[in-house]
């Protein structure tokens, strides 16, 4: 589908169905080079596109005010390139074999080619933003990448640490996910004529959405089938990544001791993961995490009252609600299946 555009002072106020084909085409243009091996890797990478949530946020944020559609497209592409580069590097670090249900880049092409491909994507993102001479956007992009790297290092330092606090979890979630969500909304505003107060509100919305999104993703690591996740269930625990439902359950006076015993049993097998999931449910760790994700989302949406009550604002809220409702339904589906299994 196309988009509805109103021209104002050489800029455009656009209400989107998100132009996924345009973004994909621009991404391929930016990454094209005269080297068959690189082209082959890039084609492999772009065959497994996800929801493109981050570029969607850029477009939706920009659509609130008049903007240059060409700049917005390039900024959205740059954000997606940074996201893809971070996933490639994460898979190398984690020695992941799967990504989105397919063989990971490092599994297929090796670590050296994968690291350099990630670097190639980062460099392409910087180059693309730099063409528009938008210093504040470029500064935001580079500082966010710095935060993401620090977050990954923080997560490595906390691996297998059963004494991790909820505050430390929120801090690493900021670096792992939330800071990039915040940047998507911020740069969308910066690429338009949006006033500073609106950009700040959008940035906070993106931050809260990122926290909610990561908490749900961490829950799904325990509660979804491998085929839906595109990776093995319980992979966070297997990698030593202690997430919120586990942190909460470890503090429980009754279930905490049981959970700690399970977590200290190595290696964890599928039966052990299943028993841990039951402890997380009985201790309230699942419910607590789910409720916290909803509170983050509600806080972010409430902050959007700073923006004019336009159809574009409603689209941002609807997109966030739709995204997380999809995840909530996945969790509800799991609970329903489990209840049926228990009664049979």
Measure the end-to-end span. 46 Å
Under CATH at level 1, the class of the largest domain stands as: Mainly Alpha
CATH superfamily of the largest domain: Farnesyl Diphosphate Synthase
Sheet having the most strands: 2 strands, antiparallel
How much helical structure, as a percent, in the residues?
over 70%
How are the strands of the biggest sheet laid out side by side?
1-2
**Strand fraction:** under 5%
Number of helices: 16
Mean pLDDT rating:
88
User: What Rg is obtained from the alpha carbons, in whole angstroms?
Assistant: 21 Å
By CATH, the topology of the largest domain is Farnesyl Diphosphate Synthase
Structural class determined from secondary elements: mainly alpha
- Total beta strand runs: 4
Order of helices and strands: EEHHHHEEHHHHHHHHHHHH
- CATH-level-2 architecture of the largest domain: Orthogonal Bundle
Shape: globular
Q: Give the low-confidence spans.
A: 1-15, 339-344
Total number of domains: 2
Description:
This protein has 344 residues and is mainly α. It folds into two domains: 1-194, Farnesyl Diphosphate Synthase; 211-303 and 319-337, Farnesyl Diphosphate Synthase. Helices cover 72% and strands 4% of the residues. The protein contains 16 helices and four strands. The strands form two sheets. Strands 1-2 form a two-stranded antiparallel sheet. A hairpin with a 2-residue loop joins strand 3 and strand 4 (102-103). Helix 12 crosses helix 15. Belongs to the FPP/GGPP synthase family. This is Terpenoid synthase. GO terms for molecular function: metal ion binding; prenyltransferase activity.
């Amino acid at each position: 589908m196309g988009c509805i555009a109103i021209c104002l002072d050489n800029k455009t106020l656009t209400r989107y169905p998100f132009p996924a084909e345009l973004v994909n085409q621009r991404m391929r243009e930016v990454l094209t080079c005269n080297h068959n091996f690189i082209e082959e890797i890039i084609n492999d990478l772009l065959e497994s596109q996800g929801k493109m949530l981050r570029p969607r946020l850029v477009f939706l944020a920009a659509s609130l005010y008049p903007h240059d559609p060409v700049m917005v497209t390039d900024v959205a592409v740059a954000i997606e390139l940074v996201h893809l580069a971070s996933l490639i590097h994460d898979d190398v670090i984690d020695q992941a074999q799967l990504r989105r249900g397919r063989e990971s880049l490092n599994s297929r092409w090796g670590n050296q080619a994968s690291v350099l491909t990630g670097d190639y994507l980062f460099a392409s993102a910087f180059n693309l933003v730099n063409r528009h001479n938008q210093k504040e956007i470029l500064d935001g992009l580079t500082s966010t990448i710095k935060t993401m790297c620090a977050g990954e290092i923080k997560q490595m330092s906390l691996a297998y640490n059963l004494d991790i606090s909820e505050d430390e979890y929120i801090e690493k979630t900021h670096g792992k996910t939330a800071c990039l969500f915040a940047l998507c909304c911020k740069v969308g505003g910066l690429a338009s004529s949006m006033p500073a107060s609106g950009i700040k509100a959008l940035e906070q919305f993106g931050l809260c959405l990122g926290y909610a999104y990561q908490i749900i993703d961490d829950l799904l690591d325990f509660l979804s089938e491998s085929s839906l996740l595109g990776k093995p269930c319980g992979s966070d625990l297997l990698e030593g990544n202690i997430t919120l439902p586990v942190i909460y359950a470890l503090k429980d006076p009754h279930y905490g001791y049981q959970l700690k015993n399970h977590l200290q049993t190595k290696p964890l097998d599928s039966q052990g993961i299943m028993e841990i999931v039951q402890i997380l449910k009985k201790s309230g760790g699942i419910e607590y995490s789910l409720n916290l994700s909803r509170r983050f989302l509600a806080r972010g949406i409430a902050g959007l009252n700073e923006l004019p009550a336009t159809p574009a604002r409603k689209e941002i809220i609807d997109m966030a609600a739709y995204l997380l409702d999809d995840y909530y339904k996945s969790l509800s589906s799991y609970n329903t299946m489990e209840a049926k299994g228990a009664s049979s």
